[in-house]
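HUMAN: Would you supply a protein with fold tokens?

ASSISTANT:
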Amino acid sequence: MKGLSIQASFTRLSLITSMTASLLLTGCSQNGAQAEDAGAAASPAIQLEYWTPFSGGDNVFMTELVDQFNEEHEGIQVVQMNSRLDDYYSRLRTAILSGNAPDVAVIHATSLPQFVQNGYIEELSAPAKEAGLDFGVFNPSVLKATQFQGRVFAVPLDTHVLVMYYNKTFLAQAGVLNEEGKPVIAPGEAGFTAFLERIRQAVPADVAPLAQPSTRIDSVWLWWSLYNQIEGGGTFYNAAGTQAAIDNSAALKALNYIHGLYQSGLIPPDIPDAFKLFHEGKSAVLITGVWATGALEKTGGLNFGVVPLPTLYDKPAAWADSHTLTIPTRHELQPEKRQAAMTFMKWIAEHGAKWSEAGHVPSVSSIVQTEAFRALNYRSDYAAAANSVSFWPKHTKQWSFIEMIIRQFERMHYGEQTPQQTLRAASAQINLELAKQGR
């Protein structure tokens, strides 16, 4: 698409030169043991500063991985700095512009286009070759999200994909659970609706057949998934990238179905926190990302299972994103530091079985076949979903456009407009922004 030139805009890197590191790291957390390493003035090891936007269980598992890497590599010490996701990217951009960028940073695949176009991260083909990293080991769908004009700018860490969690107790009561403990769902829209209707008839009145919030991004993820399941669907922009292309029959078909679930009460209204509802045993089905697995399996008394998002239309598809590892652009980065950074990123990706304890699907294809991965409960039940993922398209303004869609979906959920009006309003807003960009 236009606007994704990979020529580095190094002039931007000199815009802010007096920012201090203390400003950048306000609100960040640092592993205590690593902080001691950072303070060792005479340490001969190469020290890498590693920024992450993880929360809760994700950060626990990543910290354990960093500690293990440090124990195994005497010549490299990684200091992890973890920030809140809500301001992580603004901090990272400021750090890059001021010349205080970390040596390694996690960036979601959806956010990569902006960082690539602005020259904020390094191209990795040559450094990866020197480090012995073969990009061919990664799941092709995930690797594609890191490639721009045939060049790779990030090491994929995982896939986090939309899946379906279900309460086995409630499904058994409704007679829609088979002997293997899997949901019994007939094909198509009618089959999934009948599945939820049987649940509603069997469970207590205060239990939601399907939990989805009326606000936030969840229903947008579901819409994007179903839209991509329809043959000929899944288009976001026209071929030239000059206009939105989401006001069409396939997009409307998927949205009409979701709207019907809300209207019928199969998704009850005004759910503020769908995960909490399922976690507390007040929902039979929850559609959300795989990151919920780690928290749910620690919940005592919750008899649950998880499967890939059901295929309601022509082919499997589910929204997904990926955590990727990048080397931010700096005024100067010594070759030995770059090599150390690649060594670290390669090692982290290769230890995806440990990272999958957080719920994510490893990016290295062979890991899902290992004993370490198969020994984990639930993960193997949805690992195959990584082969039919639907990422958002590569666009520098993609997050802004998603936020526009979220606002229009919320208006629809609260009865202010129809699905058709929702898609048209979102398209108009996106087109207005695209016109400002001269696209």
Notes: Confidence is low (pLDDT under 50) at residues 1-28. Residues 10-157+322-350 form a domain with the D-Maltodextrin-Binding Protein; domain 2 fold (CATH 3.40.190.10).
